[in-house]
Amino acid sequence: MVHDGAMFFGWIQFDILLGDVQSLKEKRSVVRPIISEIKRKFEVSVAETGELDLYRRAEIAAGLVATDAAHVIDELDGIERLVAERPEIQLLSAGRRIHSSEDD
What we know:
By secondary structure, this protein is α+β, with helices and mostly antiparallel strands. The chain is 34% helix and 38% strand. It is built from 2 helices and 4 strands. Strands 2-3-1-4 form a 4-stranded antiparallel sheet, covered by helices on one side. The chain is elongated and about 50 Å long. The chain starts with 7 loop residues before the first strand and ends with a strand.
């Protein structure tokens, strides 16, 4: 069956300041549970994407594909709320994009 409707891809990227973290090992112990929770609750692709060598900073990004733009927006909103509500981190910024398969 061929689907002629639009497909929507959305991603969100977070710049995070970690609390009292003194090593990359401690950083992983904070970042990994956040990534795992996002994957478990939202069933999206998510990874640490930047600031890999800094102890107290992390960049995490998540992305998803759906046939409904509203669903993509709802999921990105939920992911942002989850990250913003984590008490062990400070969310410095969040950026997002949504693209349609029909975009030029």
